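dumping this here before i forget
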Amino acid sequence: MELCPAYATICALMAIKTKTVARPKLNFWQQIYIPEILRGVWITGGHFWKNLFFHTMHWLGLFKAIRAGVTIMYPEEKRKPPSRLRTRHRLTKRHDETPRCVACMMCETVCPAKCITIVAEEHPDVNIEKRPKSFDIDLGKCVFCGFCVEACPEDAIRMDTQILDMASYTRESMKLDIVELLNPNPLYAKVAADKDLKKVLSN
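structure:
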């Protein structure tokens, strides 16, 4: 099999520019790694005692301006996510509180995870052809790619709720219906998780 001339030229140029570099030899202390281990313990211990001291001072009401830990104390303290972050879905409404969705199935078609299920019905308004009878999103399958938002011609679906708490004990509670999508509630995930936990513990 003959090689492409351009590929052969590139291979030849790469062969010319190749340089063998000898690996530096490690001395005795570098080979046993003990100094590096001690240095790591020293750094970690320094952070531990510093954070312990300042957290204790904060608890006593002192040195409030000095931050103790390098992390955010979640869930007591939450960082505001960026506005462009794709979070839990919501359906937008018209001025009469009805969903803007016209059940065109574009979001369901473009979804790579096949997590959107729409059942259409006729709209009472003759100017609007269809509306969703049911609109379900399975968050257990969703990959949060945002294709559904980009594909929607009516700007009916968005991922800007800033809701990140979506953990659950069962797959059923990971499915959002049209009511939950029209009225996104940050407490929904907590209520659903508590309900699932009671169900799991009762069995």
